[in-house]
Every structure is written in C-alpha cells, then in structure tokens.
Amino acid sequence: MIEAWKQVLTLSKLRSGQVVTILSGADTHPQTLAAALIAVQSFGAIVNRLDLQPINGEKAHSRDALSYLGTTPLTGNRAAIAALKASDLVLDLMTLLFSAEQHEILKAGVKILLAVEPPEVLARLVPTADDRKRVLAASEKLGRAKLMHITSAAGTDFYCPLGEFGPISEYGFADEPGRWDHWPSGFTLTFPNDGQAYGRIVLDRGDILLPQKDYVREPIEMTIEGGYARRIEGGVDAELLRDYMAAFNDPEAFAISHIGWGLQPRARWSTLGLFNREATIGMDARAFEGNFLFSLGPNNEGGGNRSTTCHIDIPLRGCTVELDGEAVVRDGKVLDRVAHA
C-alpha cells in the first residue's frame, strides 16, 4: 500500500514542501490511512490529518457513504474548510462527493483525491499514465458529441441530447490544480441536457444497483420522459428500487444524472459479489471496461443546479453506446482500438 500510494502521489505531481491534508472519518480504513501518511512524508511534504465525526446517521438508509448526499461533516465547519483550502492536495478518505464544500475547496485551486475502497482494491487498481491517456481520449470524443444513443439486446433504447454540460474524466489521480479524481476509477462521463433525455432503459439480469450493491435478478424497465424516470416497472427488484427512492420524498431523485462508459480493464464486473457490502462502495462495478454507467439524481457535480440527497449508480452490461451515430462501445466492448494484455 505504501508503494501504491507513492505511485499515485507521483502521478499527482506531489512535491517536497507542499501541504497535504488527509481527511478521515469513522469509517476510514486504518491501513489506507497509515500507508498514506508514510508515503506523503517520504516526498518531503508537510502532512496534516483532519479527522471529522460522521453525520446523517439518522437519515441514511445504509452505511454506504453515497447513500445520502448533500451534507457532510464539513457543512458549516469553516475552520475545517479553511484548513483544506490552505492545502495543495487533499486526500479524501471520508467522501465529500456532491457537496458545496468540495466545490469551494476545488475553486481555491486545491487538488482532491478520493480513496475509500478497501486496500486490496486500491492496490489492484493503481492508476497509470496510460489510464489517463485513454480516458482523456474518450472524454474528448464525448465532449464533441451532440447525442448519445444507448441500445441493448435486453431492450434499452435510450437517447441523451448533449452539449449543455462538458465531459468529466476520471483516471485515478489529481495532477492539476483544482482537479478532483477518484482512486480507483477509469471512465468518462457527462450529463445529458437538463430535461431532455428520453427512451427506455432495461436493466437485465446481472446488471448492478449502487449503493444497494446488488446484482439485478430480474429485469427492470425504466421509461424516461423529459429527463426523468417516470416509470420503474418489473418484479421485486423494481419494487425495492422504487421503495428506496420514494423514501427520500424528492422528485429530483428520479432525474437522469451522469452517463458514460467504463474504460478500466483491471476492474471486474464480478468483484462486487466477493466483498461484504459495508467494505466497498463498488468502484469495480462503476469502472469495468465496456459498461454503460448511468445514474439518477443530482447534476451539480457537472455544473448543474439540481441537487438531491438520493443518488443511484447503475452499470449495465452488453450495451452499445453511440455518439452522433458512431459506436464507441458495441455489445459491451470498447471500440477505441486499445489493446490490453
């Protein structure tokens, strides 16, 4: 883990004398924290640790850090925010995603790297410079597109007009001021034009629901109209999803959020079934090569105005993803001509 951290920090351009603040919480893995402290000090950087107490315990439906968004232990904590804004690099071992505080820190030019997966996952999915090159090439293509069309043998026929929001690339390290990234990752994404996505999405057996961390056991059909999932139909899996989302009592939870595809060949679709649900947030599922990943909920991470405490990530297998009529993923296989051993 120390060597893994050194590789990530080198890619993140950490320099001697820079200030690194490690943000931790009650669920931070002690091995990840200890290795990060040692690795940062080996660069000659100044390292601080900021440990914050958990919140939202009475609101969240699970212990997953992404099961309730919007408020974090930084909310209203000006002293902690000031310390993070005075840093060159923040290692987020707690999870600040979809928060106003994270945006404020990034606007100050601070780099933020999220790392909350188990040490075994982090060590297996250490990012590389080639990951960055591949993801950026995909993001460039995504940024030029005006329409994403997704189909599958299961029945998906989903249209997403593009252009209102730019592409986002996640390759696993933060190498530029004001950049956020997530170790591990390896995918590109964007957000459809607000209120314009339409069509049908069919979740087939073996597709994944997050933060439920469940493989779908029977098909779920979503009807998308005006950028929202207006109907979620199927058997028990569909009922469970509807009930979970209804508990937030927020119609914005049903909006189409980010869309994109996985580019990480070392991530595995099958890995989720090997971990205790509380041990992982499911980054293998989000990043495995050739998935079509869409989500429901907020778009404020992409620069939109929609925020909601409910966020669902859904990686699908076997889809064809087309940008302006050109396939970039066909039947779950990425078509970027990149060969992997």
H and E string: HEHEHEHEHHEEEEEEEEEEHEHEEEEE
Low-confidence residue ranges: none
Biggest sheet statistics: 8 strands, antiparallel
From the N-terminal CA to the C-terminal CA, the straight-line distance is 24 Å
Q: What is the helix fraction of residues, given as a range?
A: 10-25%
| Structural classification | alpha+beta
Strand order of the largest sheet: 14-13-10-6-5-18-19-20
The overall pLDDT average reads 94
Number of helices: 8
Number of domains: 2
The portion of residues forming beta strands comes to 25-35%
* Secondary structure tally: strands: 20
- The Rg value, from CA coordinates, equals 19 Å
- Basic shape: globular
Would you kindly provide a written description of the structure presented here, covering whatever features stand out?
The chain has 341 residues and is α+β, with helices and mostly antiparallel strands. It has two domains: 2-116, 3-Layer(aba) Sandwich (Rossmann fold); 129-334, no CATH class. 23% of the residues lie in helices and 27% in strands. It contains eight helices and 20 strands. It has helices spanning 2-11, 30-42, 78-85, 100-107, 119-124, 129-144, 236-246, 283-287; strands spanning 19-24, 46-51, 89-92, 111-114, 147-152, 157-161, 168-170, 180-182, 187-190, 198-203, 208-209, 214-215, 220-225, 228-234, 256-262, 292-296, 312-316, 319-323, 326-330, 333-334. The strands form four sheets. An eight-stranded antiparallel β-sheet has the order 14-13-10-6-5-18-19-20. It is globular, with a radius of gyration of 19 Å.
